[in-house]
Amino acid sequence: FSFANFCGALYTQRPPHSASAVTRAAARGGRAGDMSIRLRELIRNVRSCKTQADERACIHKECASIRTAFKDENNELRHRNVAKLLFIHMLGYPTHWGQMECLKLIAGSKFLEKRIGYLGLMILLDERQEVLMLVENSLKNDLQSSNQYIAGLACCAIGNISSAEICRDLSPEVEKLMVGSNPFVSKKASLCCIRILRKCPELCDTFLERIGTLLGSRNHAVLLTCLKLMREMCITEPAMIEQLRRHTPTLIAALKNLVLSGYAPEHDVHGIVDPFLQVEILTMLRVLGRGHSETSDQMNDILAQVATNTESAKNAGNAILYECVLTIMAIEVESGLRVLAVNILGRFLINRDNNIRYVALNTLHKVIAQDTQAVQRHRNTIVDCLKDNDSSIRQRALELVYALVNEANVKVLVKELLSYLLACDVEFKDELTQRICTVVEKFSTDKEWHVDTIIQTLSASTSFESEETVCSMIALITSTPELQAYATHKLYAKLADQTNQPVLLQLAVWCVGEYGEMLIGGVPAGVEAEAPDPQTVVELLTSVMRSPVADVTTKEYTINAFVKLTTRFANAPDSLALIHKQLAAYSCSMSLELQQRSVEYSSLLKLDAIRAGVLERMPAFAKKDRQGGGGGGGARGA
Question: How far is it, in rounded angstroms, from Cα 315 to Cα 351?
Answer without folding.
Answer: 11
